[in-house]
Design a protein that fits this description.
Chloramphenicol Acetyltransferase; alpha+beta; about 25% strand; 7-stranded mixed sheet; Dihydrolipoamide Transferase; 3 domains; 4-stranded antiparallel sheet; OB fold (Dihydrolipoamide Acetyltransferase, E2P); 9 helices
Length: about 425
């Protein structure tokens, strides 16, 4: 009999929460098989079986455990049940690794499915002729209708009920006043504490600008198929923004620095943190030395980190040490916001929704794909001139993406201007 103890996961972490058991009490487990999922104040991680045998669970789901506490035990002397024999590949075939290359940063968020979304999936449910006629005439969304007919068919009464109670979720009682209490996770507690700390300990200010995304969108449309065929990953917006930020950060080093006591630490490299909404809460994995990566390498790293965030597989090392953060509220439809600094960093760039707007170009009103940009910065270390100049430089690079190759206008580079 051997004990499985809560492992040390970081110098400053003394306790974790047992989120769930992936194996039940009495189950047979193989060596290195994942048996439980734990959550610290910074990340979610898995616990593996150290030996093969019969599992005896000790901790309960939701328990708060100290580092070193006994989580479970494994009885090595138990005989392996016949059902636990590992299946062998037939005809020499090897298991195929799942391809996660289609995961993109914009889709990394795992949002719980609402009752409305569940009902919407049943939008092809059949309706009686009268009900179908009312739905067509009144243009009623089938996702808002709760079918009560035989075999889940929508009847006239169901449509009239939906029309008489617009905006109500299907199946939700009228005038309901239910309450739910849920224990705040360690990760959510940490996010809350850090956000309040950022507001209370920095002289935070936000500057705004807008960027014409027409050139970037035209490039993506023209080369997206060839890019994916060549590199095996989609060409997204993050690589353009990361490249632009890296050039601007090296021109305005204070934006890439942070305060440590009475000293300012400057970084000659760009470790770009990307804010991702994961199932357990906001996480900020880091793209190391982004200034040295190509567009394809950046996109591949974004896919890798976003996939790990979605699956709660990020390690502590992958979320520590960033020098500057980029967050994309536009994927949720945000038109403008003031992002909060990811301390101890001194600045964060907020991307937003791309929207067609009427703008004046060379004295003429034209329609362009525009995006508002926001940079929140710590005024203790970054002056207004630096923050505004940084954002203007990002804007220039995005509106002239050919400059992303050398960080300057090709003609000026040729003329050495």
């Amino acid at each position: 009999m051997i004990d499985i103890k809560v492992p040390a996961v970081g110098e400053s972490i003394s306790e974790v929460t047992l989120v769930k058991w992936l194996k039940k009490d009495g189950d047979w487990v193989d060596r290195d098989e994942v048996i439980a999922e734990l959550e610290s104040e910074k990340a979610t991680f898995e616990v593996n079986a150290e030996k093969a045998g019969s599992l005896k669970t000790i901790g309960k789901e939701g328990d708060t455990l100290k580092i070193g506490d006994v989580l479970a035990s494994i009885d090595e002397s138990s005989p392996r049940p016949a059902a636990a024999e590992k299946p062998k590949p037939t005809n020499g075939a090897t298991p195929q690794k799942q391809d996660n290359s289609k995961v993109v940063f914009e889709k990394a968020e795992a949002v719980p499915v609402s009752a409305n979304q569940i009902a919407a999936k049943a939008s092809d449910v059949k309706a009686t002729p009268v009900a179908a006629a009312i739905i067509s005439d009144k243009k009623v969304d089938k996702g808002t209708i709760v079918p009560s007919g035989a075999n889940g068919k929508i009847v006239k009464h169901d449509v009239l009920e939906a029309l008489s109670n617009p905006g109500r979720l299907p199946g939700k009682a009228l005038f309901g006043r239910e309450l739910r209490r849920e224990k705040m996770s360690n990760l959510r507690k940490t996010v809350s504490r850090r956000l309040v700390e950022a507001k209370n300990t920095t002289a935070m200010l936000t500057t705004f600008n807008e960027v014409d995304m027409s050139q970037v969108m035209a490039l993506r449309t023209k080369y997206k198929e060839k890019f994916k065929e060549k590199h095996g990953v989609s060409l997204g917006f993050m690589s353009f923004f990361t490249k632009a930020c890296c050039y601007a950060l090296q021109e305005w080093p204070a934006v890439n620095a942070y305060i440590d006591g009475e000293e300012i630490i400057y970084h000659d490299y760009c470790d770009i943190s990307i804010a991702v909404s994961a199932p357990k809460g906001l996480v900020v994995p880091v793209i190391r030395n982004a200034e040295s990566l190509s567009m394809a390498e950046i996109e591949k790293k974004v896919v890798e980190l976003a996939g790990k965030a979605r699956d709660n597989k990020l390690s502590m090392e992958e979320m520590q040490g960033g020098t500057f953060t980029i967050t994309n509220g536009g994927v949720f439809g945000s038109l403008m916001s003031t992002p909060i600094i990811n301390i101890p960093q001194s600045a964060i760039l907020g991307m937003h929704k791309i929207e067609e707007r009427a703008v004046v170009v060379n004295g003429q009103i034209t329609v362009r794909s525009m995006m508002y940009l926001a940079v929140s910065y710590d005024h203790r270390i970054i002056d207004g001139r630096e923050s505004v100049s940084f954002l203007v430089r990002v804007k220039e690079l995005l509106e002239n993406p050919d400059q992303l190759l050398f960080g300057k206008d090709p003609v000026k580079a040729l003329l050495e201007l």
